[in-house]
TrEMBL record:
GO terms for molecular function: phosphotransferase activity, for other substituted phosphate groups. Pfam families: CDP-OH_P_transf. It comes from Anopheles maculatus. This is Ceramide phosphoethanolamine synthase. InterPro entries: CDP-OH_P_trans, CDP-OH_PTrfase_TM_dom. One of its GO terms (biological process) is phospholipid biosynthetic process.
C-alpha cells in the first residue's frame, strides 16, 4: 500500500487547488495547426501580476477519476501530511471503517453524538482493557488487547466525525482547537490505563531471569513433570518491572511529542494556502520528494500508535517481557535517529520553501 501511495503522489495532483489542475479544468481549448489542441490560460495562482500562457497538451487526470475504490473509503485519495505520517493500521484499516460507521450511524450529520463524547467514552474502554490486560489469564489479556484496539478505532472515529462536521477532507490535525486538546488528553489517559495494566500483570506474574538445567541422578518416572531436574533462578524484582514499564512509557511520550510536533510543522509548511506561486511550487516539490516520503514513513512505523500496536501484539502473543527487554534501549536509539534526520530535513525544507525565496526576492 505504501508503494501505491508513493505512485499516487508522483503521478496525480496532490491538492484540488493545484493550479495546473484548476487551469486544465477551466481551459477553453482552441484548435491549432496540425490537428492538435492547445490553450492559453490566465491563472492568478501561477502569475499574480500578469497573465501566464500555459500550453496544455493533455488533460490532467485526478486520482479520484481513476481510483477503483470510492474516495470516501479510499485512503489514497486525500494525501495530507498527517495521512503520510499515520501508522498503517489507522490509515489503511481504521480510517475507512470509521467512514463506513459514520455513514451508517450519521454521527457527523447530527448533534446527538459529538466527537468529544466519543473521546471521553474511549477512555472508559481503555480502562476496561487495562483491567483485563492485568489479568493472569492469557485469554482475558487477549480480550483486553481487542478492547484496546477498539479504543484505537474510536479514537479514529472521533477525529473523522470532527473533520466531517467542519467539512475538512483527509487526515488533518485541527491544531489549537478545544477538540484537539481534549482528544490528546483522552489519548493520554487511555495509554496510562494500558501501562498500569501492563505493570500490574508483570508485578503479579514476574518473569524469571533464566533457569539452570541440573543432571538427573534419580530416574524420573513417566508420571512426573517433564520439568524435573530443572531449577529456575530468582524472579525479576518489582523494581526492575517498574523500570521496564516506565522506560517504555517514556518512549511513548517521546514518540508522541515528536510525531505531533512534525505533523504540526510540516502541515503548516506544506499545506499553507496563503503562499506565493513560487512557494506553492516548492511545496509541491517537497511533497513529492523522496526525502519527505522517507521521513513520513519512518514516523509511520515509530509513532506512538505504531508502538502501541507492537505492545499489544506482544501481549496477545504472550511475549510482553521479551518485547520490553528488546526495545528498552534500541527503541530510544531509533527514535533519536529519526528525530535527528527529521530535524535536518525540516531545516532544509524551511530554507527551500521560504528563506531562499526571500533572499532571491531581496537580491532582485
Amino acid at each position: 500500500m505504501d508503494v501505491n501511495l508513493y505512485i499516487r503522489i508522483q503521478d496525480y495532483p496532490i491538492r484540488d487547488t493545484d493550479p495546473f489542475l484548476m487551469a486544465a479544468n477551466s481551459t477553453l481549448l482552441k484548435p491549432v495547426p496540425g490537428g492538435s489542441h492547445a490553450s492559453t490560460v490566465t491563472s492568478p495562482i501561477l502569475a499574480p501580476s500578469s497573465s501566464m500562457p500555459l500550453q496544455l497538451n493533455k488533460h490532467i487526470v485526478r486520482y479520484e477519476d481513476v481510483a477503483w475504490v470510492n474516495c470516501d473509503l479510499n485512503p489514497l485519495c486525500d494525501v495530507t501530511v498527517k495521512a503520510m505520517m499515520l501508522d498503517h493500521t489507522n490509515h489503511y484499516l481504521f480510517a475507512p471503517i470509521a467512514t463506513i460507521v459514520d455513514n451508517v450511524a450519521g454521527f457527523s450529520k447530527g448533534d446527538l453524538v459529538t466527537p468529544n463524547m466519543i473521546s471521553f467514552f474511549h477512555v472508559f474502554v481503555a480502562i476496561a482493557a487495562g483491567r483485563m490486560i492485568a489479568s493472569d489469564s492469557l485469554g482475558y489479556r487477549r480480550i483486553g488487547v481487542v478492547l484496546f484496539q477498539f479504543r484505537t478505532f474510536l479514537d479514529d472515529l472521533d477525529g473523522h466525525v470532527a473533520r466531517a462536521k467542519k467539512h475538512i477532507r483527509g487526515e488533518r490535525s485541527d491544531i489549537g482547537s478545544a477538540g484537539y486538546y481534549i482528544d490528546g488528553l483522552c489519548d493520554g489517559l487511555g495509554c496510562i490505563a494500558l501501562m498500569i495494566g501492563v505493570f500490574v500483570f508483570l508485578k503479579n506474574n514476574p518473569p524469571r531471569r533464566g533457569y539452570t538445567q541440573l543432571q538427573s541422578i534419580i530416574p524420573v518416572s513417566e508420571s512426573k513433570s517433564s520439568e524435573s531436574g530443572v531449577i529456575y533462578k530468582v524472579k525479576v524484582t518489582t523494581k526492575k518491572v517498574a523500570r521496564k514499564v516506565l522506560c517504555y512509557t517514556g518512549m511513548l511520550v517521546l514518540s508522541s511529542t515528536g510525531w505531533n510536533r512534525y505533523i504540526a510543522i510540516y502541515q503548516d509548511m506544506l499545506e499553507r494556502e496563503n503562499v506565493t506561486p513560487a512557494q506553492y511550487l516548492h511545496q509541491e516539490s517537497v511533497f513529492r520528494s523522496t526525502g519527505f516520503f522517507i521521513v513520513a514513513w519512518l514516523w509511520r512505523i515509530f509513532n506512538v500508535h505504531a508502538l502501541l500496536h507492537f505492545l499489544l501484539l506482544s501481549i496477545f502473543c504472550d511475549k510482553l517481557w521479551e518485547y520490553l527487554r528488546m526495545i528498552q534501549y534500541t527503541g530510544y536509539v531509533a527514535l533519536l535517529l529519526i528525530i535527528s534526520f527529521a530535524e535536518m530535513h525540516l531545516l532544509g525544507v524551511q530554507t527551500f520553501i521560504y528563506k531562499s525565496l526571500t533572499v532571491n526576492n531581496t537580491s532582485l
